[in-house]
Amino acid sequence: MRAYILLKILGFCLAAFGLISLFGDFAFTGVTIPWKEADEGLLVAEFESVFDNAPYEITVVKVDPQRYSFHLLCATQYGKESLTTKEWALKYQMLAAVNAGMFQENGLTSVGFMKNFGHVNNPRLSNANTILAFNPVDENFPEIQLVDRECQDFNYFRQKYQSFVQSIRMISCNQQNVWSRQDSKWSTLAVAMDTQGNILFLFNRTPLSVHDFIEILLSLPLSLKSAMYLEGGPQASLYLSTSSMTLERYGVWGGLEKNPLPFPLAVPNVIGISKKPRVKN
Prior knowledge:
Elements: H1 2-17, E1 20-23, E2 26-29, E3 36-39, E4 42-51, E5 54-63, E6 68-74, H2 85-91, E7 96-99, E8 114-116, E9 119-122, E10 130-136, E11 144-148, H3 154-158, E12 161-167, E13 169-171, E14 186-194, E15 199-208, H4 210-219, E16 224-232, E17 237-241, E18 246-250, E19 269-275
Antiparallel strand pairs: 1-2, 3-4, 4-5, 5-15, 6-19, 7-17, 7-19, 8-9, 8-12, 10-11, 10-12, 13-16, 14-15, 14-16, 17-18
């Protein structure tokens, strides 16, 4: 708690006075973020610091939906073969891919509602309160949205989009941490939307409780509007490759960070992105 309060106080001072702050080995000025351009409209940043005496490193991939299309690929639709996120991306010519969420014991079916156009991976709507909706039925709707069932009517959005991934809410409509405190720690992968409508894939390899991971996210200058949990532990995985950079991230369980798996695990469902073709005038 003391570290949390101190972090909030420091964040307030930075915003108020525009000073240069140093957190561990990572520094930024005011609200400047160390973005690196992977491609036009596709940015990557790495944040390293300490939270509650525990070091962390968070990878953020920010995607402009006006420049990139989002895809849901399910093993139940493509040969019932699970692949690593890298293999999914390479096989289906996507620039990036992340695990599309937790799956059931059969190794194929999502734990929450999952649908991609006419293909239904899981028809059951669970109690989870967040749904990523993309591939709109027409141009009158945003390319992608994170629907919060506590504040929005999902039945309305269900008629407006063609691809859906349901999972656990992390940040409320009022930008509050809704995850209970816990002792368990693991790597975490999440998807978020900022106030400008960009989509952010968020990955933390260092095992943290999800509650603390959310606290860190809210303290960073990312302008998050909402966020949804995707996966934890070794299955939490992210891959990105462009002409200017390649990165591959996969997680661990708490206590195993010194002896992690030497390779990423295959997953049955991924969310991927591809660059939209330029429109000629």
